[in-house]
Amino acid sequence: MFAKYLCTSACAFIVLTLYCVMHSAVVQDSDFGLFLSLRWSFDVLIFWFLAVPVLTQGIIKATLFGRTAARLTGYSVIGCLTVIFGLAAQSFIWDLDLESTLKLAFHFIPVALLIYASLLSFTLFNTNVDKKLSITKPDGQKKTSSGAPIQSLLVTKGNREQVIGINDISLISSAGNYVELSLAGEKYLYRSTLKSIFSVLEDQGFIQIHRKYIVQVKCIDSVSGLGSQSPGVTLIDGTFLPVGKRFKQRLVRMRKLDITQQAHIE
C-alpha cells in the first residue's frame, strides 16, 4: 500500500512539474526553469503528501462513529482542520505576510475542499467501511433465499477487507452500529447489530450470553455461577464474560446439547 502511495505521489510530482514548465513557457512567456519548477511542485505537494495518510485514517475512524450525525461532524471537523493547517503550511513555505495569506486563501480553500471531498469519497468507496450488512459464502456470493448456512463473513480491519470463516469466530461483541468479531487473537469489525447477526448465526453453534456478547459454544471452556447473582462464562483462551440475567436459561438448556459436552458447567 505504501509503495503504491509513493508511486502515485511521484507521478503527481512529475505531472505538476511539467505543468509548471509548460505554463511558464506558454502562458507567461517566460523561462521558469526546471529547477524552479521542481521547487514549486515540491512546495505545493509536500503538505498533501504528509496529510493524505493522516486524513485517510481520520476518515476511517470517523466512519466508525455510531450515529450519522457524529460521522458528519467528524468529517466536517477533519475538513476544517485540513483547510486551516494546509493554509498555514503554504503560508509558512512561501513566507507570506498576512495580506498575501488572505489572498492565497481565496485560491487554496476551494482547491483544498475539492481534494478533501475527493479523498473522502475515494476512502469510503475503496475501504467499504460504510457498506450495508454483507454476508458471504465461500464462493464470495451473498446468501441466497434457499437459507443455506452462512460459512463466511466479509469484515474490515483498519483500511482493508478480508473474508473470515464462521467457525473461526470465538466471540462477537457489540460496538455501536458494528459488531467486533474476535478470532485467533485478532479483532475485526462487521457492520451489523448484535441482534441481526445472532438471528443469522443462532443455529450454527452460537449462543448469546449477554446483551453485549455472543460466543461460539465450542469455544466455551466453563460456565460458572448459574445459581448465583453473578454467573459467567470462561472461553478456551481464558476470556471471562458475564452472563446477563435473561440469558441464564439458555446456558441451562445447553446441558442437553451434544455440542457442549466439552464445556464444564458448574
List keywords for this structure.
single chain, about 270 residues, alpha+beta, 5-stranded antiparallel β-sheet, 4-stranded mixed β-sheet
Question: In brief, what are we looking at here?
Answer:
With 266 residues, this protein is α+β, with helices and mostly antiparallel strands. The chain has helices at 2-27, 34-63, 68-94, 98-127, 194-201, 248-253, and strands spanning 135-136, 152-157, 160-165, 171-175, 178-183, 186-191, 206-210, 213-216, 220-224, 232-235, 240-242, 264-265. Strands 6-5-4-8-7 form a 5-stranded antiparallel sheet. Strands 11-10-9-12 form a 4-stranded mixed sheet, with no helix packed on it.
Q: What is the global morphology?
A: elongated
Task: Report the end-to-end length measured between terminal Cα atoms.
Answer: 50 Å
Strand percentage: 15-25%
Sketch the major β-sheet: 5 strands, antiparallel
Q: Roughly how many Å is the radius of gyration?
A: 27 Å
Low-pLDDT parts are 129-146, 257-262
How do the SSEs run, as a string of H and E?
HHHHEEEEEEHEEEEEHE
Strand order in the largest sheet = 6-5-4-8-7
Q: What class would the helix/strand composition place it in? A: alpha+beta
Helix content: 40-55%
Q: How many helices does DSSP assign? A: 6
Mean pLDDT: 79
What is the number of strand segments? Answer: 12
Kindly describe this structure.
- This protein has 266 residues and is of the alpha+beta class.
- Helix content is 48%, strand content 20%.
- It has helices spanning 2-27, 34-63, 68-94, 98-127, 194-201, 248-253; strands at residues 135-136, 152-157, 160-165, 171-175, 178-183, 186-191, 206-210, 213-216, 220-224, 232-235, 240-242, 264-265.
- The strands form three sheets. The chain has a five-stranded antiparallel β-sheet with strand order 6-5-4-8-7. The protein has a four-stranded mixed β-sheet with strand order 11-10-9-12, with no helix packed on it.
- Strand 7 and strand 8 form a beta hairpin.
- Helix 1 (2-27) crosses helix 2, helix 2 (34-63) packs antiparallel against helix 3 (68-94) and helix 3 (68-94) packs across helix 4.
- The longest helix has 30 residues, at 34-63.
- The chain is elongated and about 85 Å long.
- The two termini are 50 Å apart.
